Amino acid sequence: xxxxxxxxxxxxxxxxxxxxxxxxxxxxxxxxxxxxxxxxxxxxxxxxxxxxxxxxxxxxxxxxxxxxxxxxxxxxxxxxxxxxxxxxxxxxxxxxxxxxxxxxxxxxxxxxxxxxxxxxxxxxxxxxxxxxxxxxxxxxxxxx
Length: 144
Fold this sequence. Notes:
It is a single chain. By secondary structure, this protein is an all-alpha fold. The protein has one domain. It has helices at 7-10, 26-47, 64-81, 89-109, 132-142. The chain is globular and about 55 Å long.
């Protein structure tokens, strides 16, 4: 028995690709932006669902929720289409992920009122505390 590993066996040691935007450094973010921009551009041309709620407006990149969910769709799409022996994954991608996400995304991402010429996105002010720190401190103290 040979204890040596060949290149194919070592591929499992390659770190997984990071798709969580919050965890990306500048170089990783640049790579993911390029990939996502290309995928969304391809999608908008390929599916061309103009006049539908499923349309992705040109200002999609300004909407953080759209960026996150379109990233997830891109990764799911890549996964469904890169299996060694695809089966129902191709249909499942469309039925389970693509159309439901695109149907709901305009409201969740805040681009329902956006058009080809105008972006109506206003980032909400997020207050991070609202007493959270005190609540957690009290909870921890009560457990001691």
